[in-house]
Structure formats: C-alpha cells, structure tokens
Design brief:
Largest interface: A-B, 96 and 96 residues
Family (chains A, B): Belongs to the SLC26A/SulP transporter (TC 2.A.53) family.
Membrane topology (chains A, B): Multi-pass membrane protein
Organism (chains A, B): Populus canescens (Grey poplar)
Structural class of chain A: mainly alpha
Number of domains of chain A: 3
Strand content of chain A: under 5%
Number of helices of chain A: 26
Number of strands of chain A: 8
Radius of gyration of chain A: 32 Å
Shape of chain A: elongated
GO molecular function (chains A, B): secondary active sulfate transmembrane transporter activity
Protein name (chains A, B): Sulfate transporter
Strand order of the largest sheet of chain A: 4-3-5-6-7-8
Oligomer: homodimer
Chain lengths: 652, 652
C-alpha cells in the first residue's frame, strides 16, 4: 500500500506525508464589530472599490477625478480627435438608418403613437453621451421593454379609447423606471439584476419573441379587428377567426420583406465586413415599401399605412406625469418591471462590448446614466430607452469609437423629425411588422439553449418555465416564475448542503471524496466528513440528521465487514464560509449526540469568522478543546490515530 | 525559512512536502441523469431515509413495520406495563390540573367561548396518543397559536357581534391548519419550518408575550370598554383612557395571583423535585379565587366572572366548517399562519425532550400526527392544538413514560366536562389573566438573547425585527419581516461569496488564508484564491470583478515592493459545492480576462458535480487542460514553479 514504506529515515515525515508537528488553529486577528461591519458593507456594496483611484492623489486631482467619474465625457472628451470623429460619423449614420424604422415599429409595439419612438431616439442618446461610460452602446427604445410597457398598461387603459391617458401613463412609467434604475445605481444595489440568470433571459427572450411575432400577425395579415390579449391561444384564434379580413396584398408585401430582411441579416452574419447590408436593410425596406404604396396608391387596396405624422421636435411632457391618483400603483409597477428588464439588457450589452475591446464598464454608474436618461426622457415625450442589443452590435461593427456616434444618430433623427416626417405618411404597417419580427426572431438563441441542456438540466427547466410562462401566462408572470424558481434552487442548496465522505489517497496526506476518487481509502476508526455550505438556521436540522445517518450507515457497513467501529468523527469545515447562532448550537447538539455513541467530535480548519463565533459560544471549551481542533485532516488523523486502543491504524 | 533544508535525502518529497508525483484530477464515476435526479430528490425529501429499516426484512415483518410506522402506539403498546402506567397516571393528573385553567384562559385569548378550550384538551390528546411518536409531548391549546388565531379572525369578524360566525371561522381555520400540517408531513416538506430560526422565534415569542400580556390588562384592571386592537400604543392608550373603569377589587386580586404564580414557578425552577408546586398553582389559584368570589359574592362588587358554562362532551362541528364563501381566504391564511407556528412549537418541543431521553422523533411523521389531530379536532369543536411547551415540561418532570399520560389528562378533562363545569361559574376572569401573563412572561428568554448578541450581531438584529414587528405592527407581519430578512441574508451570502487569499505555511504544503494565519506567506508569482460558495447566476458578475480586483491589488502591492508580477492565478474550488451554466461561463470569461494581463488560470480540486459540468462545457479543453487542473494547491504550485522564467521560487 505504501510505496516507500521501506525507507525509514524519516518515517513520520515522509510516509504518507504525516507531519508529526501539529499546527495550531489560531483565531484570526482581532477586529472590532465596527471594523467587521465596515468591511462587510464594503464587500457587499462596493466590491469594485470605486474610490481606489482617489487614493494617494492631491486634492485638485481628486476633484478632477470626481468630475470625470460623474461625467465620463470629461475623460475621453479632451482627447477627442478628427480621426475618431470620422469613425463615429459613419457608425452614427448607420445606426440612425436603423433607429428610424425601429423607433416607429417599437412605439407601435408599445401601443404608442409612432412619433414617440422617434422622440425617444433623440433626447436619451444625448444624455447618455454625457453620462455613459460605454463606448459602443447605442441608445434607444428596445422591443422587450416596449412590449412589456404596452401589455402592462393595456390591462387597465385602452390606447384606442383613451390615447391621452395611455400616453400619460407611459411617460409616468418611464419616469419611475428611470427613478428606479438611478436609485439602484446610487444605492449600489446593482446586484439585483444579477438575479436574472442567463438561462432565465434566454427563455424569456424566446418567449417574448414568440409573443411579439404573434402580435405582428395583425399587420402582416392586414387584419383590422384583432384581439387585445397577448397569450398564444387568444392571438392565434383571433387571427384564424378573422380569415375574411386577411388582405392578399398585405400578405404578399409582408412575405417579400420577411424574406429580404433575414437574408440581409444572414449576409452580414456571414461576412462581418458587410455589416451595412443588415444595418441598412430596414431603412431600405421602409423606403421601398413607401414608394410602392405611393406609386400604386396601395392604401386604397387593403394595405394600411402609418398616416400623417406630426412634424417638430419633442414637446415637453413633465406636466403629463402622474404622481398620484388611481393609476399610480400601475405606473410604479410597470416602471419597476420595464426598468429592471431594460437595465438588464443595457448592462449586459455594455459589458459584452467592453469585454471585446478590453475596457471596464462600471455597472452601478451605468445604472445611474440609464436611469437619468429615462427620467429626463419622461419629461421630453420619450418612453423607456436603454442600450439596445441589435443597435449596439451594428454600432460596434460600423466602427464606433466613442459615444459621439450616439450624438450623430440623435442629430440625424432630429433632422428627420424637423423635415422628413411627411415622407413616412405612406409607409405601410406591414413593413414595420416585418422589421419587428426579423428583429425579435434573432433573439431566440437555440445554440445557447442546447448548451444549457448539456451543462445543467435544472437551468434548462428554469429556461423552459420562463419561456412557457411568457407564452401562455404573461410576460411579467413568466419572468416572476422563473426568478422564483431560481431563488428557490439557491435556497434549496443552502437548506440541503452537501456532506462528502473523505478518504485518504494512499501515500499522501490528501483527503478527497470517497465516492469520486476510487483510490481514496477509508481510515478505520475515522469518519471524515466535509460540509460544503454555510451552516445556518435553514440547514442545522438537516445537517444533524444527515451526519447521524452517515454514522449509522458507516457502522452498518463496517459491521458487515467485521471491521472496527468509529472512534472519531472529523468534520472538515474548510468550505463552511459562515455560521449563525443556530449553526453554533449544531456543534453542541452534535457533540452530545455522537458522544452517546462513543464517538468523539473533531473539527478541522474552521475559517476566520466561523472559528471566532465558535470560540465565543464555547465558554467551557468542550467543542474547541486542544484535542478536537486541527488545521488539516491529515494532522488530525495522525495525531489521533495513536490514541485509539486495540486499533492497528494503517495510516501512520 | 525551511527548518530541515539541509536534509537532501529526498529533497523534493520532504522539503516543503512537495510531492513531485502529481495526482490526476479524474471525473467522478458516470451516473445517468435519472440516477442523479433520484439521489438529489432523495437527499432533498428523504434525508432521514425512512425506508432504511424495511431493507432486508421478510414481507410479514415489513407489514408490521409499516403499521408501526403509521401508528407508533403499536410499537410501544404491546410492551406497556403497570409500572409504566403508575408513572403515566401521576403525570397525566398533573398536566390535567394545568390543562383545565389553561384551556379556559387560552380560549379567551382566542376570543372563543371558554368551554372550547376544554373541548380542545379532550379529543386531540387521544388522537395524538395513537399517532404521535414523542413520549413526552403533552397536547393542548397554546398561547401563541391562540393569540394569532384570535387576532387574525378579529380583523374581519367581531366575536361579540357575531359569535357563531367567529366560532365557525375558528374551526375552519383549525381544519386548514391541520390539513396544511399533515400535507407538509406527507409531502416531506417539513424543512419549511426550519426557516423559522432560533433568533426569529426568540424575538417573536418575546413580542407575542408583550402583546398577550397587554391584552390581559382588560381582565387585570377590570376594564369593560377595551380596544379591539392589538398594538402596544392603542392598548396602552385604551387602558389609561378608561381609568374610571378600573376596579380596585379586581386589581388587588390580580396583584395577589401575579405574585403567587411566578413565586410557585420560581420554586419549581429552583428545585425540579417540586415540579408539582408550579404545575398545581394555576388550579389552586382558580379554586381559591372561585371560592373567594363565591364567599364574598364578589361578582356584585366589580369582579367579572366566567359565568355559566355548558355541561357535556364536545358536540360535533363538521357542519360548521366553511369551504367556500367570502371568508375562505381569511380562514386559509389564518390556518396557514397558526398551523406553521403551532407546528414549530410542537416539533421543537418534541425534539427537545427526545434529545434529553435519547430517542428519535421523526419530524415529518410528527407533522402528520399533529395535522391529523387538528383535522379531527376541527370536526369535534376543538381549535388549534399542538405539543405545548409548558405542559410538556411539566409532563416530563412529573415522570411521564408514554403517551398514556395524554390519555389520563384527556379522561380527567372529560370528567370535568361531564360533571364539574358548574364549579367554574364563579371563577373570576382576573385569575385567568394572571395565569396567562405568568405563562407568557416565561417565554421571554433574556439569556438566549444575550447569547445571540454575543455570537452573531446580525441574528440579533433579526430577533429585534421580529420583536418590534410583532409589538408595533402585527403578529403575522412581524414574523414575515423577520423571515424575509433571514432569507435575504442567505441570498446575500450567496450573492457575495467570500474569496480568500491563500498563502503557504512554511515547511508544509498547507495553504491557508493569509489574513487569518500570519505565518502564511505568499509565493511570488502566484495569486492563490479560494472561492467559498457555490458559483451561480447571482454571483458570477461579482466574482469576476472581485477576482480581477484581487489581481490589481496584488500587483499594486508587489509593484511597491519591487517584486515580481503574477504568472499564475490559482483558484481553489474545494469549497465550490455546485455550479450552474452562468458559473461555467465565468471561467471562460475569467480565462480571457486574465490572459490579457499575461496571467494563466489554474483550477484546483473541483468537486464531482462541478468538474463534470466544466468538462461538459469545455469542448476545446482550454480551461481544463493538463497544465491547468490540479488536485491540490501544493501540487499545482510545485508543478508550475519551474515553468516560471527568471523567477527564483522560494517554494521548491
């Protein structure tokens, strides 16, 4: 069993690497409660240590750094060059050509007047250019947030019967979304968006894509009487109960663009150099279809068009915000949900591109920027905006260098608002439907879903719940269900922590899971368990029962083998990162319980905080005595083996 | 630095205990998804392995074991002896003397007719004697559940204006409480009660004791017009706004018993042999006060009495249960809250005494017993009952051996119900108030609160929240707030896992936290981090930021010391018990991020499940390559040190 057992020069030291010198477990250096609280709060709310750069700087420099922290434009602005501007103007114009049709389409998705979508591509990008720290984010309305905003508000107010109230509620929701986003950043609670896991987002996005696409059946088929509901079943039944309303002209036009747009997308994906094919396709479609309608007077042949749009820049809307009244609860709730969803998209997109170009995006700072942008937006006739995924990807591919590309887009939209609005009068709704469908279908990520199935079946279930919840129940309920399941899983992990039985890997002092490493062997007389979670109120009962069952199982097994019974129960606490009062009493209870069976409880390597609490609770030193506390499992086994009587240990 | 560096017999093996033989990290033995799911479900729902005893038994024996499992009376019944009966009859009579005044008092606490309290001490103990597995639990109504039941139902229905409806709702709530309890046991979801931590319960009990005691001001001061509210402020203002209603005779009598009862309790606590002093005191108080009132006709001098009580056994009440109608929501909610609270008390009491006498109580089985007892109770005019702490303590001290003591108590209560009810006609309400106050004041556990303060400040805050929530807001809200804070703490622990920087303890291959063990030293060129929590969607963002910050901090520090930069980032994953898809992608992101800094990512000892998922996700073998995966930190450092160029490692 022992390869160099014949070497007896330093038997205790070299054989099985069993150091006879036993290292003492010492309590960590003393820190006061205030110090502990301070470091805990810092770890929780300032893990990125934003004040690090201010250290060891003169006062003047500190002011400059602070101003740069609040307004990142001060950081890159002074170094801005004509060369950068050339790149930014190309990318800015490219995203503008995408922003105009998208703005109109997404506003329709939110049941808002199309012009609001354009307003929302004018003011927020300017605000973001000053406050935002991402160089690639292109700001504007996004499909998911538009969909949620519309569907939540429609539950109480009809956009057709009461369009003014609906608009007021949309602006108010935008205000609360912004307020909520900015507060999250300011209070450094940004980690809340981390609770939307990748699996949830993939399921949610796919579900939302289905829902949104189904909504487009109205424009794609040319139906005039369409259901107001969002679910799969009512929408499909509404579409097929109104077959007499289907218009073949609309369907034909829709079909053509539904072939053209994905094709353009496909070309760009194959050859990233041809990014402008995909980026320009929506604007080309809009122009083409508008010319077609105008030329053939198709609006009189069953093809519905946008109609007359108002010219001019964003009118002020702060007098339209609702801060009281019966709809306050609705707008706050809508603001919360859309705020958190759009924030998730914005932050995720910002981080993705920052990682590609190897610069840092400060999550909490971004939240403040996006939040403030929405608060200002809500006062200037804009609805919820964020960093849009599709638009930012185009921006990045078009070679954007700084946030100036957002300014270029904003100016282009401004020109459109001032002078080009009459051109959109004949734009058919069907082309907008096709643009939306193409955009959202791209959100369905099959390869990622397959990867999730391969890695983690539970995450796959969460993903399916989000998907089916969104498709069959509602957007916000689907999301809530998926988040609840995810949190339940975390709680279950805490409630049912793993306990591993460790064995010795022969010839070493390494102890590893017996059921994983087949060459690991039990040491007779010892049951060595590793507890793999913080010990707290939610799992003490389970841990006690489970540990006692390990002893029973071990003794039954050993009984059959006619081997010795357990003398020592060694608990390896290396992985126990925290403990509370219930956890502390677990050890007292456990000690009593195992002593009744003639077993001694030995603890190994409790980490700082756990050790401190155990010492404080254990006045009588009956848990933490000198013979019951060791630094490593190997040392514990080596030190305790000789004390077992009538026991020939094969370890030392 | 190295004590035996001069010994060059086996330099690699003995110095710093650096084994040159590197152990391979192998994936755990293959198990199918079904097998994994099965073992996970077993660990979650059957951690106590209730079927273990059925293994390797003949069929006949299995049937007997099953019957004994469902009816524990079959287990101890056949061996029941006269000697045991003698003990049980003494303890049974003792708890009956406590049960009668307590039953009447607690029923009043729940705003129910006093007789219902006696009914509830008759049927449920009989049911428990057949189904229950605890030998010491004495069953009956308890103060906390009575208080909650009364206060929740009173919010919607007045027990004075509509006594019949109130009674119906109380029985219906009892039915749902029982149904809920039994289902928890049947579905093996008993761990839900674990979420009521010790700290929460201590704060909650103390708060409830204050609320209950304040309610007794009505009887203790003899006030007739008293507020219906429960909060501290309205109750005190009501008591002091009705000073004109105070009756000195009542106050005097109340004061006497409020001295006598705690005194009796004190005597018993000092000398456990005199348990009967405390156990008999309430009955003595009731008899004494009743005689006094009868002798002095005190009911005409401002002392209010219980009045005429109906004779006879429990009437059936199944026709009074509400399964529909406007109050269904209320009774289900009340049933849920009272059910879970009374279950917590019953299970905790059962476990406490089982631990004292060294036998096992099966939590899920007890839940079914208590639940069934309440369902049957609700059909026989009983309200919520459970294993009462005070009564069980008396039972245990009086020498109870089996559940027969419950039967004896039940028979005694039956005799009282049949023949002795007229005797209670003149019992003054003030003595019942004094009994309740004495009982609940005993629930305030100052030493435990001090212990919690000493061990864990956060638990103390949770305790205070429960206390002040109950006192100032409401019983159920206080409880909900405390549970929410506790769960939030768990989630925070998961969201912000600890990352420890490890250093080598000189002369060993032990690696421990640098900030805890001052003799641990850094190994130049290596940053060794231990991650102390499962890695999942809620913490990947944080972990990535935190690990990159560790690298920055380390490099800044080393820069000042003019030492070398980091070549390897070693992540010790021993304490990472689980991982999900987001966690898997963390390693890919991290690898890219550190490679940009010229650092190589090395993983150490991923446990079974984590290793499996990493392998499955890592098709290209870029994370889990042969040079980036080791079994121990020591082996990783030993193997990688020679590869660093221009680097004189002090480790090997």
């Amino acid at each position: 069993m022992e390869p160099n057992a014949s070497n007896n020069m330093q038997p205790d030291h070299c054989l099985g690497i069993t150091p006879m010198e036993v290292h003492k477990v010492v309590p960590p250096p003393h820190r006061s409660t205030i110090q502990k609280l301070k470091s805990k709060l810092k770890e929780t709310f300032f893990p990125d240590d934003p004040l690090l750069q201010f250290k060891r700087q003169p006062l003047g420099k500190k002011w400059i750094l602070a101003a740069q922290y609040v307004f990142p434009i001060l950081q890159w602005g002074p170094n801005y060059s004509f060369k950068l501007f050339k790149s930014d103007i190309v990318s800015g114009l490219t995203i503008a050509s995408l922003a105009i049709p998208q703005g109109i389409s997404y506003a329709k998705l939110a049941s808002l007047p199309p012009i609001v979508g354009l307003y929302s591509s004018f003011v927020p990008p300017l605000v973001y250019a000053v406050l935002g720290s991402s160089r690639d984010l292109a700001v504007g309305p996004v499909s998911i947030a538009s969909l949620i905003l519309g569907s939540m508000l429609r539950q109480k107010v009809s956009p057709i019967n009461d369009p003014l109230l609906f608009l007021q509620l949309a602006f108010s929701s935008t205000f609360f979304a912004g307020l909520f986003q900015a507060s999250l950043g300011l209070l450094r609670l940004g980690f809340i968006i981390d609770f939307l896991s990748k699996a949830i987002l993939i399921g949610f996005m796919a579900g939302a894509a289905v829902i949104v696409s189904l909504q487009q059946l109205k424009s794609l088929l040319g139906i005039t009487h369409f259901t107001k509901q969002m679910g799969l079943v009512p929408v499909l039944s509404s579409a097929f109960h109104n077959i007499n309303e289907w218009s073949w002209q609309t369907i034909l036009m829709g079909f053509c663009f539904l072939v053209f747009l994905p094709l353009a997308r496909h070309v760009s994906m194959r050859k990233p150099k041809l990014f402008w094919v995909s980026a320009g396709a929506p604007l080309v479609s809009v122009i083409l279809s508008t010319i077609l309608v105008f030329a053939f007077k198709a609006q009189h042949h069953g093809i519905s068009v946008i109609g007359k749009l108002q010219e001019g820049l964003n009118p002020p809307s702060w007098n339209m915000l609702h801060f009281h009244g019966s709809n306050l609860g609705l707008v706050i709730k809508t603001g919360l949900v859309t705020g958190i969803i759009s924030l998730t998209e914005g932050i995720a997109v910002g981080r993705t591109f920052a990682a590609l170009k190897n610069y840092q995006v400060d999550g909490n700072k971004e939240m403040m920027a996006i939040g403030l942008m929405n608060v200002i937006g809500s006062a200037t006739s804009c609805y919820v905006t964020t960093g849009a995924f599709s638009r930012s990807a185009v921006n990045h591919n078009a070679g954007a260098k700084t946030a100036v590309s957002n300014v270029v887009m904003s100016v282009t939209v401004m020109v459109t608002l001032l002078f080009l609005m009459p051109l959109f009068q004949y734009t058919p709704n069907v082309v907008l439907g096709a643009i939306i469908v193409t955009a959202v279908i791209g959100l369905i990520d099959f390869p990622a879903a397959c990867q999730i199935w391969k890695i983690d079946k539970f995450d796959f279930v969460v993903m399916l719940c989000a998907f089916f919840g969104v498709v069959f129940i509602s957007v916000q309920d689907g999301l809530a269900i998926a988040v609840a399941i995810s949190i339940f899983k975390i709680l279950l992990q805490v409630t049912r922590p793993k306990t591993l039985v460790l064995g010795n890997i022969p010839g070493t002092d390494i102890f590893r899971n017996l059921h994983h490493y087949k060459d690991a062997t039990r040491i007779p007389g010892f049951l060595i368990l590793s507890i793999e979670a913080p010990i707290n109120f939610a799992n003490t009962t389970y841990l006690k029962e489970r540990i006692l069952r390990w002893i029973n199982e071990y003794e039954t097994e050993e009984d059959i083998k006619k081997q010795s019974s357990i003398h020592f129960l060694i608990l390896d606490l290396s992985a126990v990162s925290a403990i509370d009062t219930s956890g502390v009493s677990l050890f007292k209870d456990l000690k009593k319980a195992v002593e009744n069976k003639g077993v001694e409880l030995v603890l190994v390597n409790p980490v700082g905080e756990v050790l401190e609490k155990l010492i404080r609770a254990d006045d009588a030193r009956d848990i933490m005595g000198p013979d019951t506390l060791y630094l490593t499992v190997g040392e514990a086994v080596a030190a305790l083996s000789p004390t077992m009587k009538g026991q020939s240990s094969s370890y030392v």
